[in-house]
Amino acid sequence: MSDCADCPAHESLAQMGLKLDKFDRVVALAGNPNTGKSTVFNALTGLKQHTGNWPGKTVTRAEGGYEFAGLRYKLVDLPGTYSLLSASQDEQIARDFILFGQPDCTIVVTDATCLERNLNLVLQVLEISDRVVVCVNLMDEARRKGLEVDTRTLTRDLGVPAVPTTASTGEGLRELISTVASVIEGKIATAPHRVQGGGEFQRAVSELLPLIEDVAPGLPNARWVAMRLLDGDLRVRQALESGDLLKIEARQREAGQRFSRKMALEGAQ
Amino acid sequence: MTPNTEHSTGALLQRADELRRNLSGNFRDQLVQALYADAESIARRAVQPVGNRRRDWDQQLDRLVTSPVFGLPLMLALLALVFWLTISGANVPSAMIADALFWIEERASALFDAWGVPWWITGFLWHGTYRGLAWVVSVMLPPMAIFFPCFTILEDLGYLPRVAFNLDWLFKKAGAHGKQSLTMTMGFGCNAAGVIATRIIDSPRERLIAILTNNFAPCNGRFPTLIMLATVFVAAAFPPAIASVVAAGSVVMVVVIGILFTLIVSAFLSRTLLKGEASAFTLELPPYRRPNIGRILYTSLIDRTLFVLWRAIQTAAPAGAAIWVLGNIFVGGQSLAWQVANALDPLGLLIGLDGVILLAFIIAIPANEIVVPTMLMVYMGVGMMTDVPSYAALRELLIGQHGWTMLTVVNLMLFSLLHNPCATTILTMWKETRSWKWTTLGALGPLGIAFLVTFTTAAVARLLGG
Q1: Which of A129, A197, A210, B395 measures 20 to 30 Å from B79, CA to CA?
Q2: Same domain, A207 and A255
Q3: Residue B46 is nearest to which of A115, A211, A246, comparing CB atoms?
Q4: Shortest CB distance from A227 goes to which of B31, B50, B52?
């Protein structure tokens, strides 16, 4: 670190624990079980949620706060899951929050020692939301196992920032939250990777896209909605029929606009 | 919603249904395949092995720990080791704490007497409330302060998922979900937590089975009771050289019996009330991690030991006060406590226990932690014992004055293992199932089983012993 004293990484970070009455941003924390998600949560919020070395420890949602660069962030720790496709309660809690809870950004915590399996969930989150930061955690264990994870290549391939961390020692966490801030403020543009799939898969999805465009013009995660409909997901179907999905998207866009207006004003000063 | 968008929503859903039906394979499978393929190619580009200093000692260890031959015996041996450490280590500090706390009671009540405070205030405060607390602290604190750190080390090391892995096939055989082995392992910590943990099970049928049987994993509130009984009574029946080993073994036996009942009841439920096939799942074995000593001490001493102790104290203090009142209101020459206990006596004796023990279990419904202290308070309230308690004095009180036998001890351990869950767990069951029917079954089913089992052992013991 040398002459970048004014870059966001030097902004102050303050743990806010459970003081959640007023906050400016909501950040969701997703990830496979046992990737150190709770450790990241505790390190950022200063809370002492019990962390244990077994999968499925966190089945409920925990919330905490931190302050960074003068803004208050609410961090929502979602249940650890391997995917967002099944109907089990933990996966539904996680999926509903990313989709309906309107987080400003979603951090997906991954295990650097078995990245391939963890990417499965990352790719699913990328289909739902484009404001995502991938936290490649347990870098120390990966190094011990003789694995080198190239987060730059990963960032390029995923189309969203990937930040290497070792949450137990705090390594990389500051960069993680400054990256989150940049993604929310639009300083880092994201272009999330989309799942390729075979010919038939692609054809079915792309055939539905114009129909979804008719119902919900400009829906950012139309591909994901198409996939859920093709999978026969009742919840997404209901959300579409009742119009909830559209309302949420509208609100999100509105919030985004308000936000860019605020940014523009700040820039003018 | 305007008619126009309603129309297009209808068209969209209709087309989606058509496409789904006409796909050559299952869409989910295609999606999952696509996800895996992309994940693999991205990971291949981003992750490079450096050199070839691959350390696969943890795989070797896993091969041993989860081996079909050594897995289960190793698990039992580890469990026995933890209990042995707890039992052989808790004696001395336990006696020291008891000495100190009862010295305070003696001095304080003497002081109150000297000040001319009415006897019943002194009695209520010091011989009732305080004595209850002192018992809980001295009997429970040392075993917990040893047991919980050991348990937390195993947890942090990543051993518990391996236990689940070893037991998984048994649960499948019982027609339950393999993940139930994990929620059961969590029940050893706390049954309420175990019941919440069943959310990781997708199928409602298998989730209910896991909820209804979680109680058979003795929780942190009941381990101190089991360990104390093993230490005070089981160990004393054997020569000192092997006493603590036998005591540890007996607690392991109780755990094994608990697992056995979990499986039997699960199998019964999955063949009767909750019929169905076991669903498949993947269980991930996390890497072994070096436990973080600071965090272990914090978690086990603050989060667990003090938490359980505080819960015990919160319920033991009013219980102690209530028992003192019951023990000091005399109707027809006998205290109320003794009369209630007498009324329960026939039922208690039928299952190899007695009325006082049943009364203690009723008073301890809010928290299992206080069964033994409650029992002792009732016995002491009516007995002669005013001395500082030691393990020998305890044996003298229970075996000498109140006719306990080895059958009483064994059945008390069994009853403590099998009986109804504590109030917190029952409440959690209701919150998770939102059904009075299943909650009632979850509470009364185990109680019925506890009566049945202890009745049987008592009958067999009587037949054999005459």
Answers
A1: B395
A2: yes
A3: A115
A4: B31
Mutate to test the interface with B, among A48, A53, A219 (most CBs of B within 10 A): A53
> Over the Cα atoms of chain A, what is R_g?
18
pTM over 0.80, yes/no: no
In-domain check, residue B101: yes
Q: How many domains does chain A have?
A: 2
B376 lies in a domain?
A: yes
Place of tokens 């054809």: A203
Residue B357 CA, distance from chain mean position? 19
Cβ–Cβ contact A234 with B under 8 A: no
Answer yes or no: do A198 and B33 touch at CB < 8 A.
yes
> Which structure tokens are listed for A190?
């994201």
Domain count, chain B: 1
- Residue A22 falls inside a structural domain: yes
Structural domain of residue A241, as residue ranges? Answer: 199-268
What residues in A contact B279, CB-CB < 8 Å? none
Residue A191 counted as domain residue: no
How far apart are the C-alpha atoms of A264 and B299, rounded to whole Å?
Answer: 47
Exposure on the CB side of residue B126, measured as CA atoms within 13 A: 21
* pLDDT, averaged across chain A: 80
Contact A154 B42 (CB under 8 A): yes
Q: Which pLDDT score is estimated for B9?
A: 82
d(CA B144, CA B94): 11
- B115-121's contacts with Cβ under 8 Å and 24+ in sequence apart are B120/B328
Show the 3-state SS of A91-128.
HHHHHHHHHHCCCCEEEEEEEHHHHHHHHHHHHHHHHH
Whether residue A250 lies within 8 A of chain B, CB to CB, comes out as no
Contacts of A147 in chain B (CB under 8 A): 47-50
A window 116-175, beta carbon within 8 A of B: 116-117, 119-120, 122-124, 141, 144-151, 153-154, 157-158, 168
Mean pLDDT score across all residues of chain B: 82
Distances in whole angstroms, Cα of residue B177 to Cα of each of A78, B170, B181, B263, B281: 23, 10, 8, 11, 8
- Per DSSP bridges, beta strands A13-17 and A62-68 are antiparallel
Helix (H, G, I), strand (E, B) or coil at B213: helix
B181-217 pLDDT, tens digit each: 878 877 877 788 788 878 778 788 889 999 999 999 9
Closest residue on chain B to A35 (Cα): B286
The Cα A214–Cα A225 span in angstroms is 13
**Do residues B130 and B321 lie in contact, with contact meaning Cβ atoms separated by under 8 Å?**
no
Chain B CB within 8 Å of residue A90 CB:
yes
- Beta-carbon separation of A231 and B286 below 8 A: no
State pLDDT tens for residues B438-448.
Answer: 999 999 999 99
| Pick from B42, B43, B284: CB nearest A34 | B284
Q: Residue B34 is nearest to which of A149, A196, A243, comparing CB atoms?
A: A196
Along chain A (269 residues), what's the average pLDDT of each consecutive run of 10 residues?
47 66 85 85 79 50 83 87 78 81 90 89 91 94 88 94 93 94 92 84 87 79 86 82 71 51 37
- Do residue A168 and residue A212 come from a single domain? no
Q: What angle do CA B119, B123, B128 make, to 5 degrees?
A: 170
Residue B284 within any structural domain of the chain: no
pLDDT of residue A109: 96
Asked if A145's CB is within 8 angstroms of B55's CB, the reply is yes
B295 contacts in A (CB within 8 Å)? 51
Q: ipTM score of the complex?
A: 0.83
